[in-house]
Structure formats: structure tokens, C-alpha cells
Design a protein that fits this description.
The chain has 482 residues and is of the alpha+beta class. The protein has 23 helices and 13 strands. It folds into four domains: 161 residues, Beta Polymerase, domain 2 (2-Layer Sandwich), CATH 3.30.460.10; 82 residues, Hydrophobic Seed Protein (Orthogonal Bundle); 142 residues, no CATH class; 57 residues. The protein has a seven-stranded mixed beta sheet with strand order 3-4-5-2-1-6-7. The longest helix has 24 residues. The radius of gyration is 29 Å and the shape is elongated.
């Protein structure tokens, strides 16, 4: 037996154990389909992940039963049942902590114009598997009342899984012509699994990259987020650029290539940004953070538009953080990201350079308060982004930057201990302002509130008498100017 055969056997044995552990879900479900005279197979990503030892609580199945029969069986078994896409033959259910999605065998045809197939229900498992996106997602395991049974792999997806290769069942040109989103899914799987593209798959994506324009921004966004949150996000981003897909969906990223960073003459801004992304990932302490990761990747996208050649051969990128924040906002909006996420990422891009004015602890307490206030709930992410942005090879300079940021965080902690930095608000609210100045609700109240907030940032908390005295001074000065 070859080493490959041994590895195959070990992975299949591990998958069998993982599926056996799900017996309380799989066995009753398989038995109900069998009692109704239908086949049931665990399929696609669920089989792939079981083999790779990463099976989660989302389980995908296929069956010869039609949607109405699927729904009827699930109604008797699941806690909740709903139509995911009844026209496409898919019914979903929740059983305990598990999400189950079951789809009737399909044998679809495409018009090569849209990505929406003409749905045709199939009559065989092999016919269903051959229409799937990649060979590693075209494997199935029979589910019976006794649990997992026969392993089906008509396209030898197991060999590609063992080799760490992403390839299509049919010619990639046909597959991507049917559904161009599969090109982006291929890149996403690189990010999630650390696999590589088969040469013919890479070539087809490169030649057909324009076809991604057929896909809606919403669908593109979903794949991009899965890609950026993968364990191998850097490789996926680089592949997105190499294939030309990035030029069509997020051109600001390849636009950073060949733009020399003023602090790192040995690498371009694109390479620097990939390094910052990796260092930001290394600083994460929990689940992948798409806001932090996107901010890390996009933090310098304003440099190409602000690049200036200075006397003496230097290069500058003045205000690239301002330009970059606007560019990030525009691109993320085009990709239909939620407003809150757009705001957070663009604000991190805008603030990422602020720390470099810290200068060995020379900021006033007022400047520290403003830094915290401007970051707001993004402060922890900003800490990570700023630290990740240190990619210099000069060890002395890198150590000084990190020590300076340690000092800034220490000062933030000290000031926060004396003041509520997370809620820097004026020491008088709107009602108190109206009562003291004897004015009705309106713009003047907002102006007074804003002035008191500025005073709060400059001087720290005021007691009631100090706040009222400051408000009266502002009011008198304003009336004199009028």
C-alpha cells in the first residue's frame, strides 16, 4: 500500500468516526428517509470537512425525494423547518444545535448569460455530483438508519483533496461559464483550506476574469468575507490579484503594486499591506475579525493617489489616510457592505496614521482623550492595526515604535482610571444647557453641547460649577461677537 493509500485510509477512517459521533442526528434522519422509500446522502462541503477533520454543525444532504416529500419528513423530525429555496429543491431545518439543508438531486442547465440555472430535478446521485463546482465538493456518503455507510466519489475528489488541489469536475471554462461566481469561490477555498488551484483552473480564471461582472455585488461580498476570514487569507488575496479578479471587484488592492512605501524601500505598498494583514491576523484573540482584516488590507490604498516625488529622491504620501478612508468607503459601498461595517473600516483607515504623531510620549492628555474618543468602540481594533502596521526591518526602530505604543496604551489606561474615556460627554446635558441659557430646543443647544465636549476633551471632567461657568463664558463671548 502506497503512502497516499495509507493517508486516504486514515482520513476516511477519521471521517467515519466524526460521522459516527453524529449518530443521534444522522441515524434517525436516514431511517425516516429509508422508511419513506428514499435515499439520503451527506454531500459536498460536509463530506469534505468530515475528511479534513473540520466538520461543523451545518450539514448538507442530497436525496431523490422531491421538495414536498423532504418537507414532510423533516416536519416529523426537526425542531424547525423552512424553505431555503423550494424552487431549487432545497428545504432546511434545525435539530438541536445542527442546521440541516437537504436538496433534491439536480441536473441543471445554464444559458451562459446569467448564473441562474434552469432547475431540473435529477434521478441519480452521480448526475447530481457531476454538476457541482469542484471535485472536492463532489463526494457523498450514504446515510441510513444505521448511520454513515458507502462512500461515493465518482470524480475522484479524494485524490484532489489529498493533493490539496482545487479543480472542476468538467472543463473549467464550461463550469465558470455556467456560473462565474465559482471563480471567486475557488479563490475563497484557497483562503479557507490553504489549497492551490489546478493549473487549468488558474488559467481559466485568468482568461475569464471579466465574467465575474455577471455576478451581483452582494454575492461577491459574501465570498470576499469568507476569503478574508480564512486561515490562509494572504494566499487568497494574492491569488485574487494574480488572476485579475481583483481588478474587476476591488481594484484598489492591485493598485497598490509597485507603489514604493516611503518607510520600506525594499517592498512595495501591496507587499507591505499583505504583511500588515498577516500581522493583524496574528494579533487576533478570538474568531476572525473581518473589520480588522479589511482595515489592515486597505489601510494604505490612498498611497497611489497621494504619491509625490520629493527633492533629493524621496517619496511622500501626505494625507493618504484621508484619501484612503474615502476610497475604502466608496469601494465597500459599491460591494454593498452594511453601513456600520463601512463606517468602521473607513474610520480605522482614517485613524491608522494618527499614532505616528505621538513622538516618544509627547502628546498631551487632551490628545490622548481625542485619540480614544475618535476611535470609540474601535479602540481595541485600532491598537491591533497600528501595531500590525510596523513592518520595518530596522529592529531598533521597530522596538521604539512598539515601546511608544506600549506607553500610549499605558497612558490611556491611567487616564481611563480617572475618567470615563469610553463615554466622553459634556458635563451638562441638553436640558441643563437650555435651562441655564434660557433658550428653546434648536441648533444653539447643539453648538453649546459641542463646545462643552471640546472643553471636556481638553481639560478632562469638570464639576457642575466649572461646567456652568464655562458655558456662561462661551455664551457671553458668542453674544459679544453677534
Amino acid at each position: 500500500m502506497t503512502e497516499s493509500d495509507l493517508r486516504r485510509a486514515r482520513l476516511l477512517a477519521a471521517a467515519a468516526v466524526a460521522l459516527r459521533d453524529l449518530g443521534d442526528v444522522l441515524n434517525p434522519l436516514g431511517q425516516r428517509f429509508a422508511d419513506a422509500g428514499h435515499e439520503l446522502f451527506l454531500v459536498g462541503g460536509s463530506v469534505r470537512d468530515a475528511v479534513l477533520g473540520r466538520l461543523g454543525n451545518d450539514l448538507d444532504f442530497t436525496t431523490d425525494a422531491r421538495p414536498e416529500a423532504i418537507a414532510a419528513i423533516l416536519e416529523e423530525w426537526a425542531d424547525t423547518v423552512w424553505d431555503t429555496g423550494i424552487a431549487y429543491g432545497t428545504v432546511s431545518a434545525r435539530k438541536g444545535s445542527h442546521l440541516v439543508e437537504i436538496t433534491t438531486y439536480r441536473s441543471d442547465s445554464y444559458d451562459q448569460v446569467s448564473r441562474n440555472p434552469e432547475v431540473t430535478f435529477g434521478d441519480s446521485l452521480d448526475g447530481d455530483l457531476v454538476r457541482r463546482d469542484f471535485t472536492i465538493n463532489a463526494m457523498a456518503v450514504a446515510i441510513t438508519g444505521a448511520g454513515a455507510a458507502d462512500f461515493h466519489d465518482p470524480l475522484d475528489g479524494m485524490s484532489d483533496l489529498l493533493a490539496g488541489v482545487i479543480d472542476t469536475p468538467a472543463a473549467p471554462e464550461q463550469s465558470f461559464g455556467d456560473d462565474p461566481l465559482r471563480m471567486l469561490r475557488a479563490v475563497r477555498f484557497v483562503g479557507q483550506l490553504g489549497f492551490s488551484l489546478a493549473p487549468r483552473t488558474f488559467e481559466a480564471i485568468t482568461e475569464m476574469a471579466d465574467e465575474i461582472n455577471r455576478i451581483t455585488a452582494e454575492r461577491v461580498r459574501v465570498e470576499l468575507d469568507k476569503m478574508i476570514c480564512g486561515e490562509h487569507a494572504l494566499e487568497a488575496v494574492d491569488l485574487l490579484v494574480e488572476t485579475g479578479l481583483a481588478d474587476r471587484i476591488i481594484p484598489e488592492v492591485p493598485g497598490m503594486k509597485l507603489t514604493i512605501d516611503e518607510h520600506h524601500q525594499h517592498k512595495d505598498v501591496y507587499a507591505h499591506s499583505l504583511t500588515v494583514l498577516q500581522q493583524a491576523i496574528d494579533l487576533e484573540t478570538g474568531d476572525p475579525d473581518p473589520v480588522l482584516r479589511w482595515a489592515a488590507l486597505l489601510h494604505d490604498i490612498g498611497k497611489p493617489d497621494t504619491r509625490r516625488h520629493e527633492a533629493g529622491g524621496g517619496v511622500s504620501f501626505h494625507h493618504h489616510e484621508v484619501v484612503g478612508a474615502k476610497m475604502a468607503r466608496k469601494r465597500l459601498r459599491a460591494l454593498k457592505y452594511p453601513k456600520a461595517m463601512v463606517d468602521d473600516i473607513s474610520q480605522l483607515v482614517f485613524l491608522h496614521l494618527r499614532f505616528h504623531g505621538y513622538g516618544d510620549g509627547k502628546w498631551t492628555d487632551s490628545a490622548v482623550r481625542r485619540y480614544v474618543t475618535d476611535a470609540g468602540p474601535l479602540l481595541d481594533r485600532l491598537h491591533k492595526l497600528v501595531r500590525a502596521d510596523c513592518t520595518t526591518r530596522n529592529k531598533r526602530r521597530a522596538r521604539r515604535l512598539q515601546e511608544n505604543y506600549d506607553d500610549l496604551e499605558r497612558r490611556i489606561t491611567e487616564i481611563a482610571a480617572a475618567e470615563d474615556l469610553q463615554r466622553v460627554r459634556p458635563d451638562l446635558d441638553g436640558n441643563a444647557i437650555m435651562e441655564l441659557l434660557d433658550i428653546p430646543p434648536g441648533p444653539l443647544v447643539g453648538q453649546a453641547w459641542k463646545h462643552l465636549k471640546e472643553v471636556r476633551l481638553d481639560r478632562g471632567p469638570l464639576d457642575r460649577d466649572e461646567a456652568e461657568a464655562e458655558l456662561r463664558r462661551w455664551w457671553a463671548k458668542r453674544n459679544q461677537a453677534d
